[in-house]
Amino acid sequence: MTQNEQALAPIEQGGLNWDSIKDFLTSDMTYPPTDDEVRMFLAICQQSGLNPFTKEVYGIKYSAKDKIQIITSKDAFVKRAHAHPKFKGMVAGLIVLREGKVEELVGSFMLPDDILMGGWARVHLKDMEVPFEDKVSLDEYNKGRGTWNTLQKTMIRKVVL
Fold first, then answer.
1. Cα–Cα distance for residue pair 53/128, rounded to 1 Å
2. Which of 9, 65, 102, 107 has the fewest CB atoms inside 10 Å of its own CB, making it the most exposed?
């Protein structure tokens, strides 16, 4: 065990060791990362205050030749937003094409004939009269990988949140 591994996690507490921690963090990955990628992932988690063991952040590899990608969960962003003293609330949803008109829907539900175009979110802060709002296009985020293949509505709403 290297000094960096000791500094990143209490490896030997509770019967945990480097291999068991690495196995836990990479068990859902189709393409396993190298030890160095796992160390980098843990270092970034530590520096950003995100906990990979509670699924606030994920490491993903889309192919054996790709480097690990670090994805912060929507729940981590929402948790931090709620902890901010100026946070007043948020709402998010989908942008769809319905009968030739662009519509903004709240949540992740749409009708079967709707065409998913993107997502939107609105964040209200206590000291701002006008809420912060953003809209994103589905084609910029959906690369046809992983969860995007089956949960497009949920994923695009997560992006804007």
1. 35
2. 65
Q: Which helix (H) or strand (E) holds 95?
A: strand 87-98
Q: Specify which residues 104 forms β-bridges with.
A: 95
Q: What is the pLDDT of residues 48-105, one digit of tens each?
A: 999 998 999 988 888 889 999 898 999 999 999 999 999 999 999 999 999 999 999 9
141 by Cβ neighbours in 10 Å (0-12 / 13-18 / 19+) ranks as middle
User: What is the DSSP track for 51-71?
Assistant: -GGGTSEEEE-SSTTSPPEEE
Q: For residues 12 and 94, which has the higher predicted lDDT (pLDDT)?
A: 94
Q: From CA 24, how far away is CA 54, in angstroms rounded? A: 11
Chain-centre distance for alpha carbon 137 = 17
Please give the Cα distance from 41 to 61 (Å, whole number): 12
Structure tokens at 82: 């709620």
d(CA 140, CA 120): 14
Burial (Cβ within 10 Å: 0-12, 13-18, ≥19) of residue 39: middle
The pTM of this model reads 0.72
